[in-house]
Specification:
single chain; 489 residues; alpha+beta; Beta-lactamase; 2 domains; ten-stranded antiparallel sheet; eight-stranded antiparallel sheet; 20% helix; globular; disordered N terminus
């Protein structure tokens, strides 16, 4: 590990106002106590070992936040501290916040978990442009909100990972678990049709304002500019902030460790939900026998998680321990890694938010040393501890070449799948820039007439040209994986 990439000094630690003092700052699952200084030392040690610039940590006892800290840096280049109010992407933590909105609509009688969702729409599902691929599959009429929240719809995580890049149903809806952002996005469409309101307004009304999440939104807001984080890749290169312009229930939430831990506290206390509805949320909807969560359709079964009864509820993963049931959720995006877990009986919980693609490497040690939680299905979730990772491969060196202005100009345009993923290519003088869903631009420099690279990370992009000289698709080269993305315009 290159420790020079990360500066961790007590002077740059940002502490929030909520912190229990004294030797018994946090009560672990097993009843033992861990002091504030022990918590801080553990976090700083694993941050340094895993090369994670910034971490937000919240701990709950008896359903109440008792510990809330920011550690390290939200911006390495400017040496800005990571605080409890630092805004960053929640990534897939968005899904559980969205589910809380959905369940409140269920309590209001505006949605039924077991009614096929197509019945809520104003026209047949395949007549919506994003679902035209389902025109010849009658199984789309079987899909319910319960299936979408429990990831049993049969949809892929995202269609662009499938061969052919078309949306398809991989198995009989309701029959097995396969994590799906596509499913959450379909439920967003249903919610917006039923309520006649857009998602960001609904989330403010039903979740963010009631839980005093004052620095949270489903889209980027200029008021976040005073304290926001840059994301960093595995090599410590800055990916910049994420500034989503379109509300996406599957992953666009911008939040803070302080705000999201207040949401988790509300979930632990069952606020704003009927008792029976909350019970359904953390009741097993489907047992999980797959060896890994990803890829979703991996045909590999195991009994390894049978002892903890690994399963999925409504938007939350579930497992059972001698200390009672736990519900958990991951948040994973380039440059951002987040995790939340709560034990319902004791009210013990932990929320971790990081601004690094290396963040998952610290989960196991934080969970075990601070919380005494040795039950997390680490392998199933794909969380390899930082000290167990293979040596990191050096970033490949690229040589910039000159490419004509006319050649650069023909690559400019939009690529992807409307409305979920849009990558926009801009011409910037002698090079290109790529922008995802209105987020920050990243410069791409030519190493040939069709292949471009990023100086800030290990991203490589190439373009496919048809027989008429038209650019028909862009290919993202991510390690050993190539992802072709069709041109929109």
């Amino acid at each position: 590990m290159n420790s020079k990439r990360l500066i961790l000094l007590p002077a740059v630690m940002a502490f929030a106002a909520i912190a229990a003092g004294g030797p018994g700052a946090f009560k672990r699952l097993d009843g033992s106590a861990i002091s504030q200084s022990e918590i801080d030392q553990t976090v700083m040690r694993v941050m340094k070992g895993a090369e994670v610039p910034g971490v937000g940590l919240a701990l709950l006892n008896d359903g109440e936040i008792v510990y809330l800290h920011g550690y390290g840096l939200r911006d390495k280049e400017k040496s800005l501290p990571f605080t409890a109010d630092t805004v960053m992407p929640g990534a897939s933590l968005s899904k559980v916040a969205f589910a809380y909105l959905v369940l409140q609509l269920v309590d209001e009688g505006r949605l039924d978990l077991d009614k096929p969702v197509y019945q809520y729409l104003k026209k047949p599902l395949p007549e919506y442009s994003n679902y035209k691929d389902l025109a010849d599959d009658p199984r789309c009429k079987l899909i319910t909100a319960r299936m979408l929240l429990s990831h049993t719809s049969g949809f892929p995580n995202w269609r662009w990972f499938d061969e052919g890049k078309k949306l398809q149903i991989h198995f009989e809806p309701g029959s097995r678990f396969a994590y799906s952002g596509e499913g959450i996005d379909l439920l967003q469409l249903v919610v917006e049709v039923v309520t006649h309101e857009d998602l960001d307004d609904l989330m403010q009304k039903y979740v963010f304002k009631p839980f005093e999440m004052t620095r949270t939104s489903m889209i980027w807001q200029e008021r976040f500019k005073n304290d926001y984080a840059n994301g960093y890749d595995e090599n410590g290169s800055s990916l910049g902030p994420q500034k989503r312009k379109r509300a996406d229930a599957a992953g666009s939430m911008q939040t803070t460790i302080g705000d999201f831990s207040r949401f988790v506290q509300g979930v632990m206390q069952g606020k704003r939900l009927k008792k029976e509805t909350r019970e359904q949320m953390i009741r097993a909807q489907i047992a999980i026998a797959a060896k890994h969560e990803f890829p979703p359709f991996e045909n590999q079964l195991t009994d390894e998680n049978k002892a903890i009864r690994l399963s999925y509820g409504l938007a939350w993963g579930l497992y059972w321990t001698p200390y009672g049931e736990a519900f958990f959720k991951e948040g994973h995006d380039d440059g951002w890694r987040n995790y939340a877990v709560c034990f319902d009986k004791s009210g013990t919980g932990m929320v971790i938010m990081t601004n690094s693609s290396n963040g998952e490497g610290i989960y196991k040690e934080l969970l075990e040393r601070i919380m005494a939680n040795t039950f997390t299905p680490i392998e199933w979730e794909g969380f390899t501890p930082y000290d167990k990772l293979p040596p990191r491969q050096p970033v490949k060196e690229h040589k910039q070449v000159n490419v004509s202005s006319a050649t650069l100009e023909k690559y400019a345009g939009r690529y992807g799948e409307l409305p979920n993923m849009v990558l926009t290519i801009h011409r910037e003088g002698d090079h290109l820039a790529i922008q995802e869903n209105g987020g920050p631009q990243r410069e791409l420099f030519p190493e040939s007439e069709i292949r471009f690279f990023s100086k800030a990370g290990d991203q490589v992009v190439s373009f496919e040209v048809d027989g008429n000289g038209r650019i028909v698709e862009m290919i993202l080269h991510l390690g050993d994986t190539d992802i072709p993305i069709k041109r929109i315009d």
